[in-house]
Amino acid sequence: MFFLIITLAMGLLMPFQTAANSRLRQVVGPAYISTLVSFTVSTLALLLVSLLAGIPILPTETMLAEAPWWSWFVGIVAVVTITIAIHLFKEIGQLQALIIPMFSQLIFSLLIDHFGWFGAKVIPLGTSRIIGAVLLIIGVILVVVLPRLKAGQKAVGASTGSRQTFWQLMAILSGCLSASITGAYAQLSSIVGNPVQATTVAFFVATVALLLFCTCLGKTQLVGKAFSRQMTEQREPSNESEGPSRDGIRRSQYPWWMWAGGLCGAVIVFGNAWLVPKVGVGVFSMALLVGQLGLSMLMEHHGWLGAPRKRVSWLQIAGILLMLAGVALIRL
Questions:
Q1: How far is CA 288 from the centre of its chain?
Q2: What was the pLDDT predicted at 229?
Q3: What's the confidence (pLDDT) of residue 300?
Q4: How far, in Å, CA of 285 to CA of 253, rounded?
Q5: What is the largest CA-CA distance in the chain?
Q6: Ranges under pLDDT 70 in the chain
């Protein structure tokens, strides 16, 4: 129960991470640049923790020999998953972009547990897990699907025909990759023997790959521009804190918390590497989802971090309770 509560708490970080990265994208522009900034913050934070705790950063020859070669590049897979998710909202609409990956992640994470893929502990797909999965699906429908349908959001996005089908398949792939990443981080952690070291290596490899990609595109100057803007805003007189800056962007678009998305990501991935061997891929993924949706509802209800205010309905509350019951059954 303790590990389950910790996983739910980590899910609370995901809406904050999303809000921070979204605001960061408004400043730096292209999504791959904001992703680079976020991963850089994560990597630096993990390197600092490793140095302070005396944890080795580089893997040993034994670790390199025991771990599958692809496990060291799981951070790059995470970047690919994020890139797909960014395009989904445009191609198939917000509703499908949220629901299809959620459902595919749920199903694939249970399959990972059932077959023991990625070195995961085998947890058979019994009756309680199937009922728990059904409760989770009903909960997601109550929390996410019905409110958006009532608000007039269509399940179909801008794309049509074969293009839409392609991106729907990519949405399924995105959910499967998310579940796979969860299992791969856990496997790497078990081989390395330390979740901090495993997380640091994965983030470092992904950050270097992103940096090389952005350098090839000649876009790395946007990162420096974002930091210089932030420093300029901090030097501005406080009595003009809501006035426009020289480039026409209001200072309120540069809150300090927009740089914290990377810290949240580091904590979540560390929790992944630490907790999955203890609770399983299915429980971790679903508990994380419940925490994420629960705090997202509160953020929208109160308008926190610039989220548009939306009243939370009793059906949504009932949906969260059903999801909690589903997670409990999957944990049995």
A1: 10
A2: 56
A3: 79
A4: 32
A5: 63
A6: 152-160, 224-254, 306-307, 332
CB count in 10 Å sphere of residue 3: 18
DSSP 312: P
**Cβ pair 194, 55 in contact under 8 A:** yes
Cβ burial of 257 (10 Å; 0-12, 13-18, 19+) is middle
DSSP codes, 153-209: --S--S--HHHHHHHHHHHHHHHHHHHHHHHHHHHHHHHHS-HHHHHHHHHHHHHHH
The answer to whether 205 and 76 have CB atoms below 8 angstroms apart is yes
- Where b means 16+ CB within 10 Å and e means fewer, 163-177 reads ebeebbebbbbbbbb
Q: One-letter amino acid identity for 134?
A: V
What tokens appear for 78 in the block? 């995470």
User: pLDDT for 35-68, tens place per residue?
Assistant: 888 898 899 999 999 999 999 888 888 888 888 8
Helices (H), the chain: 2-11, 13-28, 31-53, 61-66, 74-92, 94-115, 127-140, 146-150, 161-192, 195-217, 221-235, 261-279, 281-302, 314-331
Strand partners, 244: 250
Report the distance separating Cα 36 and Cα 210, nearest Å.
6
